[in-house]
Amino acid sequence: MMLTRKFGWAFGVFAGTNFVLLMFASMITTFISPAAAGSGIPEVKAYLNGVDAPDIFSLKTFFVKVVGCIAAVSSSLCVGKAGPMIHTSACIASILGQGGSRKYKLTCKWLRYFKNDRDRRDLVTCGSGAGVAAAFRAPVGGVLFALECVSSWWRSALLWRAFFTTAVVVVILRALIDICNSGKCGLFGKGGLIMFDVTSADVTYHLIDLPPVLVLGVIGGILGSFYNFLLQKVLRVYNLINEKGHVCKLLLAASVSIFTSCCLFGLPWLASCKPCPAGLSEACPSIGRSGNFKKFQCAPDHYNDLASLFFNTNDDAIRNLYSAGTDNVFQKSSVFLFFIASYFLGIISYGLAVPSGLFVPVILTGATYGRLVGMLMGSHSTLNHGLFAVLGSASLLGGSMRMTVSVCVIILELTNNLLLLPLVMLVLLISKTVADVFNADVYDLLVKLKGLPYLEAHAEPYMRQLTVGDVVGGPLQIFNGVEKVSNIVHVLKTTGHHGFPVVDEPPFSSSPVLFGLILRAHLLVLLKKKTFLHACTLASIDVSKQFSAEDFAKRGSGKHENIEGIDLTAEEMDMFVDLHPYTNTSPYTVVETMSLAKALILFREVGLRHLLVIPKSSSRAPVVGILTRHDFMPEHILGAHPFLLQSRWKTIRLGKSNLIELFSGLC
């Protein structure tokens, strides 16, 4: 249609195809699995921190993530596939860790060995590394990504397990690439393990090249932090719209799709046509096929450089920007327009009810920014424009995501240019340092926007002023060692707590004493099995004959038992349950005078869900309260103790005004 100059029809087909694909992705996400929206990395990061949100790793989330990501990326939306691939791999790991899916009758008995928190967490960590290895063909980068970005607990055994996982990924990738290189995959599967091979044996740089590289890092840090700032504001608006219902979610996706199509089709008209370079190994212009020189509205033997960037896959566009010997292929105005468009389209495209990633759009935008800086430098630097594009990607990634080691290795594995290692390291360190002055990294911001109670590795300064007794809440629900069934049912129905202290009182002990902690899930198992006693006495039966370890194993991501689904007669409600055999008799406890900062370190490092607080005096009740993750959240602490907001020990976020106040105070 473009060849016959039917531009209106061409735009209609282009916009209509994008609209249908994006609406399909949005509908299956909205109505089947809302947990599949976004990149999934914040959810994986929160899960590995101890937050088990519902349905984030379910089988339906897995399928919606795969299908929806394909449709969303194909709809010309400025989103990536790396984040969804990480979430997809984590879903596979979690499903394996829970022994499969009983709901869909996909189970395997030997996999039940992993039905505990630690092994399942290790599998999800390995899965996230495998996702990066598959997305970027970067096995070592995948291991480092899992270590640096998503994992909260790391140990040496997990290192080689993650390395083994990514090694298997890259071996399978290599085998599939060989199949595709034989011509059986059409346009798909081109290239080798190195996605953007810019290997150059004669890359040299001198002292004169350092100033532009330093400037690249500083501006990359500013752009990255501003990217996070705008993304946070846009997502707040999107959340208000999405809360109004399914129709508003779909209308928002439709609006962004139409706007994106208009930008992609309209902006290339602002660029002038260029004659095809001589001596090319590929067709110019490329018509009716994938290629790097798009004719668009130009005359024969001419191409539109801006259309060549817009009407290409993200991978091909990045490859074009990274390529050496292409200094004269793009115009400054075209690269500038593409940078502005990709920067802001990446921000408004994220947050829709579709699976979407941030990694690839940031790499693409950074490559455009780096290429533009290289073009502006001209003869003042010996580096070619393609190498500036690689450094630009590194600077924007460091400024937005604040990862250093993993991004450095991923960039090197993507480009196969080890000679750039010193410059990439320098750019990443500078951009991260500059961006940290303004705000947090993008994934921390997304975790907070989603309301996930993520525990940081360090305690805030104001926590040193408080004890655990200052934040522990009430009222406390306590069960006796032998408890009446009706009381258990009442407490489970009227509270949402997941752990309850068990206290022995006379006649089972001489004085009230803490016996242990019992979980809601275990109480539901006892009520469902109906192991009741007619009198308030200790059970004389052998528990191991009535229950197996699998009865109390951690459930998967499907529907859990609830108290409403258990039917009990009036006679059974008057019976008793001996909780002693099923209680954890060695729960972690702290004295009520312990520093809140120390309690947080203990809570996070051990990976607890409940921390019992006991009194300092033996004359009081044996339990003061229970600390959960909620009690360590800054919102809860500062809400209960507002005087800390005026304290000089409050958290210092080093913004511009804070820096001025800090330095003036020191002076």
Can you lay out the helices and strands and say which pair or pack?
Layout: H1 7-31, H2 41-47, H3 59-74, H4 82-97, E1 100-101, E2 106-107, H5 117-136, H6 139-150, H7 156-184, H8 210-242, H9 246-266, E3 273-275, E4 302-304, H10 305-310, H11 314-322, H12 332-349, H13 359-377, H14 385-401, H15 405-415, H16 421-436, H17 442-449, H18 468-471, E5 479-480, E6 482-484, H19 485-494, E7 499-504, E8 513-519, H20 520-529, H21 543-546, H22 570-573, E9 576-578, E10 589-591, H23 596-606, E11 611-614, E12 625-627, H24 634-640, H25 656-666
Parallel strand pairs: 5-7, 10-11
Antiparallel strand pairs: 1-2, 3-4, 6-9, 7-8, 11-12
Helix pairs in contact: 1-3, 1-9, 2-17, 3-4, 4-5, 5-6, 5-7, 6-7, 6-15, 8-12, 8-14, 8-16, 8-17, 11-13, 12-13, 13-14, 14-15, 14-16, 15-16
Protein name: Chloride channel protein
Subcellular location: Membrane
Membrane topology: Multi-pass membrane protein
Provide keyphrases for this structure.
single chain; mainly alpha; 3-stranded mixed β-sheet; 25 helices; 52% helix; transport; chloride channel; membrane; ion transport
Outline the structure in words.
- This protein has helices at residues 7-31, 41-47, 59-74, 82-97, 117-136, 139-150, 156-184, 210-242, 246-266, 305-310, 314-322, 332-349, 359-377, 385-401, 405-415, 421-436, 442-449, 468-471, 485-494, 520-529, 543-546, 570-573, 596-606, 634-640, 656-666; strands at 100-101, 106-107, 273-275, 302-304, 479-480, 482-484, 499-504, 513-519, 576-578, 589-591, 611-614, 625-627.
- It has 667 residues and is mostly helical.
- The chain has a three-stranded mixed sheet with strand order 5-7-8. A three-stranded mixed sheet has the order 10-11-12. A two-stranded antiparallel ribbon has the order 1-2.
- Helix 3 (59-74) packs antiparallel against helix 4 (82-97).
- The relative contact order is 0.11.
- Mean pLDDT is 84; it is low at 648-664.
- Belongs to the chloride channel (TC 2.A.49) family.
- It is a multi-pass membrane protein.
- Residues 583-643 form the CBS domain.
- Keywords: CBS domain, Chloride, Chloride channel, Ion channel, Ion transport, Membrane, Repeat, Transmembrane, Transmembrane helix, Transport, Voltage-gated channel.
